[in-house]
């Protein structure tokens, strides 16, 4: 299987609330192949997560994974085992917030500061249809929120302070050090 094309900002699918996935649909060969393709596409692109709308499919499915290859691109992100989330629901676990500099595979080269909940619980179904949950903190909590936003038709640009927007190169040159200091306690 080859990685799928990632749609970019401006494609209407990125602005739609994705459709819930029924148990019957989840067990179909078509959706299982989509999940495999999401995993492969995320790994090929080097992102921390990927949602089905980002490959043009309006379904409430996303994958999150921070493996060694991802950490070469984002060395400050804590490892996250492969997690397939279907029909996720996020609940903040505290009022604490964290300012995270985010990018997106569907918004190439651009990054910006987004305020996220510092601790969340994500209730979802795994790829086999079993109910599951993950509690995430810090940068990992931000990654899950970012992916669920995609399922709601929301891009990080909608939350970002416009004055913080920068290309990846300018962020590395002018903003990375301050960002790492700000999130130091969440990068272990």
Give a short synopsis of this structure.
The chain is of the alpha+beta class and 188 residues long.
Structural summary, described in words:
This protein has six helices and eight strands; from the N terminus they run ααββαβββββααβα. With 188 residues, it is an alpha+beta fold. The N and C termini lie far apart (34 Å). The strands form two sheets. Strands 1-2-3-6-7 form a five-stranded antiparallel sheet, sandwiched between helices. A three-stranded antiparallel sheet has the order 4-5-8. It has one domain: Peptide Deformylase (Alpha-Beta Complex), CATH 3.90.45.10. The longest helix has 17 residues.
**Structural class, from helix and strand content?**
alpha+beta
How much of the residues is beta strand, in percent?
25-35%
Instruction: Indicate the CATH architecture.
Output: Alpha-Beta Complex
Number of helices: 6
* N-to-C SSE string, H for helix and E for strand: HHEEHEEEEEHHEH
How big is the Rg? 16 Å
Query: Which regions have little confidence, pLDDT < 50, spanning 5+ residues?
Result: none
Total count of domains = 1
CATH superfamily heading: Peptide deformylase
What percentage of residues falls in helices of 4 or more residues? Answer: 25-40%
The N- to C-terminal Cα distance equals: 34 Å
Which strand order does the major sheet show?
Answer: 1-2-3-6-7
**What is the CATH topology?**
Peptide Deformylase
Counting DSSP E segments of at least 2 residues, the number of strands comes to 8
CATH class, please?
Answer: Alpha Beta
Shape: globular
